[in-house]
Design brief:
Layout: H1 5-10, H2 19-27, H3 31-51, H4 55-75, H5 81-104, H6 111-133, H7 145-149, E1 156-163, E2 166-172, H8 180-194, E3 201-205, E4 212-217, E5 243-248, E6 253-256, E7 271-274, H9 281-292, E8 298-303, H10 309-312, E9 321-323, H11 326-349, E10 372-377, H12 380-386, H13 393-398, E11 404-410, H14 420-425, E12 428-431, H15 437-440, H16 446-450, E13 465-469, E14 482-484, H17 489-498, H18 508-518, H19 520-523, H20 542-545, H21 552-560, E15 561-562, E16 565-566, H22 595-611, E17 616-617, H23 619-623, H24 626-629, H25 633-645, E18 649-651, E19 658-660
Amino acid sequence: MNQAAQPLQLDPNAHTGGVGEYLLHRAKPYLPPWLLAGGVGILSLPASAYWHQSAAAGVGLTLASVGLTAATWWAGKPTSQQRRLHSAVTVAAGTTWFTAAALAGPAAGPLPSLFLIGAPTLAATWNVRQLLRVNPEGGGSADKGLLEKVGLAKTMVTGASVVPNKATFDLQLPAGELTADDVAKALPKLAGAFRVAKNAVRMTPDADDSSRATLTVVPKDLLKSGTEHPGPSHPGGSIADPIVVGIYEDGTAMVLWFPGDPAEHRNAMHLLMMGMTGSGKSESGITALAEVITRRDVIVWASDPAKAEQTLGPLLPAIDWAALDMESTKAMIEAIKAVIPARTSWLAKHGYKQWEPACAKTQADGSPGMPYLVAWFEEAAKTIRETDDDVFTGIAQEARSAGVSLVVSLQRASGAQMSTDTRASLGSSWVHGCRDERDAGFALADEVLDAGAAPHVWKDKKPGYSYLVANGVPETFWATPGRSFLTPADYLDWAVTAFADLRAACDPVTAKAAAGAVGNAFLQRTRYPLPKIQGGNAARDEDEYGPLYTDEEEGEDDALDVEGEWIDPEAELPPVRAVVEIAQPDNRRPAKVDPAEAREIMADLLAEFEDEGRDSVGPKDFMDHCDRIGRSRSWISTQVKEMLLTGRLAETHEAGRYRIVPGPRTA
């Protein structure tokens, strides 16, 4: 039965006539076998009159009967075994009866009974076959010609889902004969049969049943035109929120997760980024970092000894430590090794089993919080080559528990580039176009390649196209192509500037450990100025990329803490005792001061406090001068932490108060 007939049979409302027309409408799909049987019986009458008892006709009709049966068997080779046998038996029975009826007469001997019993039986078997082929409930299909062609005979399609540009089929494999591995081997042939690209056909095995799998076919590449960066996904949020870096072919967000989450059974992420020259690997990395720098509780240490500022340049003002040569890169590696035990001890001391957003806030004992640390090594092949192929192994094995994520980016993660121990410790991978399937195998597991992932098909022809196999990413997306956002330079400048006040500073524990390990390499690290944005302050360009951020802690301070007294926002206002006319309020916001100038004002204020004879100060003392400083409360809090790091302030036993350490005075 052809496809056009199926909806006619299944839809009883497709007719517009009366009962007779309705019955004819329902019977039409089943009439051909009966008409053929009747036609054979009718044609036997003139054949008998013409060839009755003719020896020559007997020979000719017998040969024709055998030839037609053989031709049917040969023509049925591409179909299923059942259909082939059924067709041959039907033709053999029909031609045998017709030959006997033409020579002896249709009414001779048992021929009438054979016709009246055999013809309806054969016609009915074809009707039964038609009924079994039509399954409105999505059951299995007996028409498996295509699957048999590609080596998946006896496989049943138990369900199907078709949406725009995507078809999904649930396969039930013959138990004990085929597994999902056999489906994986057949994917290239299926792609050829569907006339689509090799990586447009994918397979996902059933986690609980090896005899079941899901086949996905995507006929059109919807990632071809690319997607402009839509703006921060969680502006001012936590690094624990998802990092959206692009979209999959069905429009689903492509997401990275850096910190772990015990509630979601997700570990912290170490990431291997790989892709050949021109595959868009570095651009994807910049897109990810552009998301990271919009979060309030994370710092970034980044290295690129090969391209220096060429890749990381636009983001340098937002990076806490940028190592752009081999000497500083080696120092950064040593510093990371030193901060891991220091950070782990701090987490244990404050009762944390792993890093969580609460770690970045001031602790109950008044200790400054500890932001998450992302250590990003771009063009890491040069670093490995000039140090040791095992240089990242220890960090990868130990850093997760310390609230540190390691990202290693290089073109080819072969054994000659990095040790297998390092590669095994980088549990997640983001793979762009590769030169060949062997290269893809350095970063993607066999089961992902078997499922249809094929980055070697793209090579350097489709920049940004990639596969993401990472913690928190469902396995169903591991072999699904995605593409990172197109991130223009002006967006990077905007993100760097707009979130400068919110961005976390290096915490005292991490800074002390790093300084103790590498000294001035950390203490005198280069800090880059914010970019000059043409047409005004980038922080106010909200219309293009959306709202900037919400500083929850700052908002709570403003609403509930005035001059040290907590105010209940739900309390009723006191009765009015007098009316006083006041001048029209000045709604103009104080001019925003350049960060460097604001730091000088902070230093001057500290000197003034010292001249006044104060022994200790806290963020509130500086916040009383917000208009003079021209920066937000969160920025001022960050600068107080910086003074603590540089030794100008020292911790006390009182939460939020710091002892002034005498320092050099300027004339």
